[in-house]
Design a protein that fits this description.
Blueprint: H1 2-5, E1 14-20, E2 27-33, E3 36-43, H2 48-63, E4 81-83, E5 86-92, H3 106-126, E6 134-137, E7 143-146, H4 163-179, H5 185-204, E8 217-220, E9 229-232, E10 235-239, E11 246-249, H6 250-261, H7 271-285, H8 289-304, H9 308-314, H10 325-337, H11 339-347
Antiparallel strand pairs: 1-2, 2-3, 3-5, 4-5, 6-7, 8-11, 9-10
Length: about 350
């Protein structure tokens, strides 16, 4: 760690290093030095070129007034340190806290939508042709490929989930949940939701979005949710974790983010906040109601077919996402029942 810090002029001498516990995909550490505090990120995917592209994007976004935390450059001007085959990046430590939708007023929800619209608009300016491409993967297993220049370069698109594959996955997960020993309340809920979801899919399989139904593509953050946004007081201080920067349907990111920020523990969305958020997003991003309606339909279908939390638990034996399951699984059921109301909240 001390050898790594010596790469950076003015970083000071290491005083302490503490793991940052939040986050699922990378490792992070809070470093205290004689010159201040820093966040050290260990990128587990190790794709140096992609990390550099993300860093350049945040540097340009900062110049446009987007609240971000660009990396610190080392003495040679590099932002990625490769040590033992592992990629690390040093960022300034941002004093702030995460705020879920329950902690946001209707007005603050509108500001959040405007912020995401600003991100999408500014990314269109900074990610011009020649800055490389990025391949992302959704949690249902479909590949999404985008390349530099959201308007100059074609978007490859991706097909929505085939319900036949979901029925097979439900059967496999159901068997694993029922076989778990000792079984607990989570396993009982998982089995109930899997049976319930199978019945819902049988009734709604004909509503699978057809190829070509996705809304307009554009550069997106790729993982916009409360743990990747820091607030200082009531104002956003920094959008962090740009690992999934990609060309994807931008309105779908707006809908996914709302479904995370504004879901209640019961699985219902706080629709007054969603309306304020979506109205501000459409205005800031220049998106119309038809674009949001298409996104609502595709994200609803994605949620109806998605069991990533159960795959983590029963296949990967990783329980870190378990606390999210109750609300996420209830949301898919409630959203199906209130489909028209939800679509109206995003488009009116």
């Amino acid at each position: 760690m001390r050898a790594l810090l010596r790469r950076y002029r003015g970083a000071g001498e290491l005083l302490s290093c503490e793991p940052v516990t939040q986050g699922l995909l990378n490792r992070g550490y809070r470093l205290a030095t004689t010159r201040g505090a820093y966040f050290l990120k260990h990128h587990l995917d190790g794709d140096r070129d992609a990390i550099v592209r993300q860093h350049r994007a945040t540097q340009r976004l900062e110049r446009l007034g987007v609240p971000v935390a660009p990396p610190v450059e080392d003495a040679g001007g590099d932002t990625v340190a490769v040590i033992g085959g592992h990629c690390y990046a040093l960022h300034p430590w941002i004093d702030g806290r995460h705020r879920g939708g329950a902690q946001l007023t209707v007005r603050a929800s509108a500001h959040l939508g405007a912020l995401l619209g600003l991100v999408h608009t500014c990314l269109d300016h900074v990610m011009d042709a020649g800055h490389g491409d990025r391949t992302g993967s959704d949690r249902t297993g479909s590949d999404r490929t985008g390349s530099a220049g959201s308007r100059a370069v074609p978007y490859a698109g991706y097909e929505s989930r085939d319900p036949a594959l979901t029925f097979q996955e439900i059967s496999e997960l159901l068997a694993l949940a029922r076989a778990r020993r000792p079984r607990d309340a989570f396993d009982e809920l998982a089995a109930h939701r899997l049976v319930e979801r199978r019945a819902l899919l049988e009734r709604h399989a004909h509503r699978r979005p057809p190829p070509g139904a996705e809304p307009a593509p554009g550069w997106v953050h790729g993982d916009f949710h409360p743990l990747n946004l820091l607030y200082r007081g009531v104002e956003p201080a920094a959008i962090v974790d740009w690992d999934r920067l990609a060309v994807l349907p931008r309105a779908e990111e707006a809908v996914r983010a709302a479904a995370i920020f504004f879901v209640r523990p019961t699985g219902r969305l706080e629709l007054a906040k969603v309306r304020a958020y979506a109205t501000a997003y459409r205005r800031a991003a220049g998106a119309d109601a038809r674009e949001l309606a298409a996104a609502v339909h595709r994200v609803w279908w994605e949620r109806l077919n998605d069991f990533w939390i159960l795959r983590w638990r029963y296949v990967r034996h990783d329980l870190r996402a378990d606390p999210q399951f109750a609300a996420v699984s209830a949301l898919a059921v409630w959203w199906t029942k209130e489909y028209e109301t939800v679509r109206e909240a995003f488009t009116a």
